[in-house]
Batch of 4 targets.
Target 1
Amino acid sequence: MTDIASDVLAFIDHSTGSDDAFNALALKVFAHQFAHNLPFQRFCQGRSKTPRMVKSWRDIPAVPINAFKDLTLSCLPPESCTRTFKTSGTTRGDVKGQHHHPDLAVYDASMLRNFAQHVMPSDTRMRMGVLFPDEVLMPHSSLAHYLALAITHFGTPDSRHYLDENGLCIDALCQALEAAQASAEPFMLLGASYGFVHLMDALQARGQTFQLPPGSRLLDTGGFKGQSREVPMDLFYEQLSACFGVGRDQCLNMYGMTELSTQFYDAGNPTVPSVKRGPHWIRSRLLDPLTGREVATGEQGILAHTDLGNYNSVVTILTEDVGQATGDGFVLLGRAQGTQAKGCSMAVDEFLQAAKA
């Protein structure tokens, strides 16, 4: 393990991370990437942002997420990395972004600590049903790995996946839900948002609903991505609550992406759109995609995340998601449209021209 990875692991393990400590480590990660990630170095030089000039994590140039589809953004040769996660390819067909991980120690530590903080304590186990294929079927999916970690570290031995190469295992899942309902033992369903839509449609066709025991939880992520019918989010959570007998406050959304090593969760508020909150090793800004500058307080902007878990790729990424800052996180407002989307595309073009120079 590299020294930089060890430093990030130590920071994750701290109970909290002060602003000064976060800033110092972010700058150290930035200097490491500037030295070893050539496309990123070229981009930063074009913006006159070098380790000698950048004094704050807020000034580290943000790399557009679509750059992961066109360039190798890795400090180590990809062939030496233990795992490469790939994006779903929903925006540019078969062109998938690739995020290379030398090993999974930092990614796993980030997921486990964060999940314990925001979803359930690490000393608690709950029977889990996963509405997503496992890692054998999807070895390059960061979500498949995330869900495998959830089952292994937080699930009971009878936890399992209910989506395989043949589709939704509806009979087996209904048996598990019926058993949970009868036993009064809490049950947790996790998976892609579109997986929940398919499940609710199947249950509606059967005329079946459930009243899961108190303490049961539902965790969805990823949106619908053309994999199911589109459902307004407020209606989606109303239907989830009614279908499984779980309160809206126990319907949790996880916001993450392949290009990050850390996830965000709802900050305990069941309203839509909800406030998202991350752990102490990730910080977010709202930017104008054309200028790279932060927008004024209270204004909408494109979310940029500085994730210390991204020690091998690029520490700060520019998403294509619109957000608005709150006192304890940000509200996710959807994908960039119109002028903001055009600005994101121009930011990608600028990065690629500079990085390939």
Note: The longest strand covers residues 316-326.
Target 2
Amino acid sequence: MRKATVIKPVIMCGGSGTRLWPLSRKAFPKQFIPLYQGKSLFELTVERLLGLGDLLAISGDDYRFFVQEISEKLGVELTQILEPCGKDTAPAMGLAAAFSGANDDLLLFCPADHFIPDAEQFRAMVESAVDLASEGWIVTFGVQPSGPSTAYGYIETGEVIRTNASKSVRFHEKPDAQTAMEFLSSGKFLWNSGIFLIKRATLLEALKEFEPTIYEKCKSAMESAEQDGTFWRPGSDFAEATKKSIDYAVMERASNIAVVPFTGVWSDVGSWDSMFALSKLDKDNCGKLGVVENICTVNSQNTLVHASDRRFVLTIGTRDLVIIDTPDALMVSALDQVEQVKKAVAELDTAGRGEILEHRRVARPWGSYDSVDHSDRFQVKRITVKPGARLSLQKHNHRSEHWIVVKGTALVTRDDEKFLLGENESTYIPLGAVHRMENPEKIPLELIEVQSGSYLGEDDIERFDDEYGRKTQKI
């Protein structure tokens, strides 16, 4: 009797959050934003992979709580490997391959930011490639092009291996418009989806042959990895791994690459025009995203609008525009110029604009905070603490704080005191006081925090106790 094949889906959670700015930010990239019917692309990816095997996620330390929160929301057990630093896809995949498992296990690598609405068709595609991967082929899935896109890389297909697969001739970078049309006309090219099914031993052998440094550093990093709850933290050797994509490291050099075509709906949601294509359009070809009841389009055509819950957006007579409104940034772009947002964000980064890093509302493992107002010497935040959650035990060296509870009950620690605050009650946290805020109730705690002092940065925090694995020190 043939041994049952074990498939281990690996979700790749990297991303810089530049091409969907200002909705996506470096600290809150697109894969975690509820872009489609109230769900994030990561959440949709997890749902799509359910039933295939035990889930593993590769993410940076900054994203670990986004991954954990969504997996808990779905009631899914998920293990995370936390990259100490971003090294592109080849080392990330190397960490997954070096993680515990049998050599015959099949690793299904899936980016967290893809939109694939037909989960059943996706799983059928994966199952159709199991035999190929088990035989030692590195299977990549190519998407049937719907047009001459310049936004995707391409895979050139060659000799037919079997009914559902061909050998890969070459991987091509994103082409110009003329080359994309030539690719489409030839019928031999598929979009590179970045999804791979590979036997664990096959991937390790390929990395060992083509990128021995990546192989050795990933292997030693996982051998010295430390477990922190559901998180695994690779050892310091990972920092010495070569930064390289899997396409350059393996796919363009190996001879055992098989391409399985995928004819279903697929998008990497890599730009605002791709979001336009996914949005529900009205009779005037206008799309509405976000809080749609805050959007009104009058005599407008071919316009995409995103609105937040902060204000109403009205367009009159607009044509071929993308309008993205968030509480702290507004972007207006010609539809045919939206690919320039990446360049614009780079310029904002050089200028030191904080809007490229975080939204006004910032997610934390215990809840979130919204920066309502600020000046040189004060800052006002609206803080929400999840039921049963608590912040770290901490102190500040440059600011004092006033807390005013507006909903729920807060349990406050202030030096040697511990007391409850109800709605419409307040307290003062002097500069240097060791303090903590927690929510003992079963409903969210909301409060207004007024900070005042000579320095108001988030790095003015000394932590002495923290249940989320952040660095602490002794009092």
Note: The first strand starts at residue 7 and ends at 12.
Target 3
Amino acid sequence: MNNRCALVSKVIPFSCVDGPGSRLALFLQGCNLRCKTCHNPWTIGRCNDCAACVPHCPHEALNVQAGRVWWDEAHCQQCDTCLQMCPQQATPMAQRYSVEEMVAQIRKVAPFISGITVSGGEATTQLPFLVALFSRLKADPQLLHLTCLVDSNGLLSETGWQKLLPVFDGAMVDLKA
């Protein structure tokens, strides 16, 4: 069992815009660029627990405990006020998932999707998780039919791409100019 974890901004179980067919889209938190025209700006940074978002949450879904910002999903109305207030371009709603926890989510929707796409932020900034997740999917006979794609800015080193090559089916590269 692999216990690698990733900081995940969002999981969309059924997406038809993140690669071919119906796919599970997994958005990882953190990016190595700060593009002004980013289409997922809340995935750029990582929460540093500054708590700038907490007093602005109209639904009291955020609080500070032991010096950390905590998100209460039950109270959250997904109004995105916290995203707009964050000086780090992060989300306090990001959660840690292990490979096994992510595989369990994928397994629930596997009969209805043709693959998964890992995006972000920049998916390759969490390369060990990415390699472990794709390896786990490729080793599971019930999930082997799923294609594994990475949506990337392309800044991964050649060595990094070589690590991904045996376990992924392709990349969608968003070239920056």
Note: Helices lie at 81-85, 99-109, 127-139, 158-164.
Target 4
Amino acid sequence: MDEHKNVNALPRRQFIALSGAVGAATLLTGAGATGSAAATDDPGHGESPCTCPVPPTSPPGAGQSPCPPSQMQALCGSLTDNDPLWHDVQYCTRGIVPPAPQPKPDCLKTTPNYVVLHGKPETQHNYLLLPSCRITGIECPFLVTSGVANYWNDAWENARSGGSVPVQYPNIGLGINSEGARRFDQLHIHLAGVRAGVQRRLQELQSMSRVATHPAQWAANQELITSADGAGDRTYRILLLPNLAQNLFALLNQYVVRPNGLTMAGQMMIVVPKMSATGFAGSFYVLNSDSSLPSGTNTCDRLLVYR
């Protein structure tokens, strides 16, 4: 199965368009994933205390990218929610110790807009980037607005060679699960590896002009890629972008979700930097899938490698 059961008591949320709002660690992996690409969601990131600077105790906001407004709170989460990853964020940003028996996370990097933590298992190609804002996941409508921080570019700047928390793997993959395929409800982008076969397949598809080069073509470019977890071929929509300057959540919503009557809650995304023999080749493949596609998937764990 592609979807995990959400073990938190938070209700399912449908993505909706809010008038005026929507314009123009521990590791979380697939419950069905096996082999080298599989791992388990676990609130423990290690017992070492946080050594990161602790900012003021007020919620994130002043002097940084804004957080979801109060009218979106029901869809984006409350500051008082009892979510393990949200507890980890609050420890790294505000020094609030997680409730027992949850261990203190190892805060690898803390900024006004995000924190980086270990995933589970702890390897050199398994990290999580989480917003400092309370954002449950991909279904939060604030993510498609112009005010949101560019978490995808932040993830790349940390994971790339020479980044603050570099992913030590020949090919890097950045991924996010759908609402139904995750276990914890604080937005997190996986900083992980992808198999060389995935990189080769993407470049092969590009050479055959079977990769979208404009967001308007994204929904129509549907191609099969063999899963890293042995689950067979899965269908992905593939878009090639020259950089990560645009809001990927907004692009997905505008060009894939809304035109096809889908929900953001059901979507997964993976960003795979294009590589050459000498390193990063200067562009990015953006993969999306959901259960509406033949052989579609709701989880990024089919392609990412954590172990």
Note: Residues 35-39+118-305 form a domain with the HIT family, subunit A fold (CATH 3.30.428.30).
